[in-house]
Write a structure and sequence with these properties.
Strand content of chain A: over 45%
Order of helices and strands of chain A: EEEEEEEEEEE
Radius of gyration of chain B: 13 Å
Strand content of chain B: over 45%
Distance between the termini of chain A: 40 Å
Largest sheet of chain B: 6 strands, mixed
Oligomer: heterodimer
Structural class of chain B: mainly beta
Number of helices of chain B: 0
Chain lengths: 119, 106
């Protein structure tokens, strides 16, 4: 069974930093592209970033490019998102999502971790 | 940046067919995936690559994609299908989600 467990959310001040983690199990982690998707309170889904299985290809939404950094440790089956210089509008539940090896859709999601950016 | 548009809300009576659309420029040239999300829960993939159902998703869920519009169809809609529905595609190395459609079964 695929399991994705996010952690690291909490309250952070504007301009601060926070690192989110996603512990994965139940599949061959290094073979799967992984993504972060966020959802602001009462709003829709917004893609944040994707990293390929090897870690060599990374992609970012324009809204976070240059501020957030996605990475992974395939030896620890863990995905990360370093959120630097967060803004109030980065407040959201951040989901870790696994991309299907064959379809391109996100076939597994974590339960999410809430990041609140406020002074 | 690429945009995909969904109606904010759709209503359907139990047992009837619900149709949710997702429109975007030449969307038919891309693969579209659909998710539903119930309150307080994480999204769940219900259709991938335009028309395919993941294991465990009921047969009443189906999809199509042609021209500028992708469509999610729920036949014989049940109360448990009430949720927010999102379309998703890739464009220029970025993931794009539609704005979401709230399906009400009443």
């Amino acid at each position: 069974e695929v399991r994705l467990l996010e952690s690291g959310g909490g309250l952070v001040q504007p301009g601060g930093s926070l690192r989110l983690s996603c512990a994965a199990s139940g599949f061959t982690f290094s073979s799967s592209a992984m993504s972060w998707v966020r959802q602001a309170p009462g709003k829709g889904l917004e893609w944040v970033s994707t990293i390929r299985g090897s870690g060599t290809g990374t992609f970012y939404a324009d809204s976070v490019k240059g501020r957030f950094l996605i990475s992974r440790d395939n030896s620890r089956n863990t995905l990360y998102l370093q959120t630097n210089s967060p803004r109030v509008d980065d407040t959201a539940v951040y989901y870790c999502a696994k991309e299907s090896e064959t379809s391109g859709g996100f076939d597994s999601w974590g339960q999410g971790t809430l990041v609140t950016v406020s002074s | 940046s690429y945009q995909m548009n969904q109606p904010p809300s759709v209503s359907v009576s139990p047992g009837q067919t619900a149709t949710i659309t997702c429109s975007g420029d030449k969307l038919g040239d891309k693969y579209v995936h659909w998710y539903h999300q119930k309150p307080g829960q994480s999204p769940v993939l219900v259709i991938y690559q335009d028309t395919k159902r993941p294991s465990g998703i009921p047969e009443r869920f189906s999809g199509s994609n042609s021209g500028n519009t992708a469509t999610l169809t729920i036949s014989g809609t049940q109360a448990m299908d009430e949720a927010d529905y999102y379309c998703q595609a890739w464009d220029s190395s970025k993931v794009v989600f539609g704005g979401g459609t709230k399906l009400t079964v009443l």
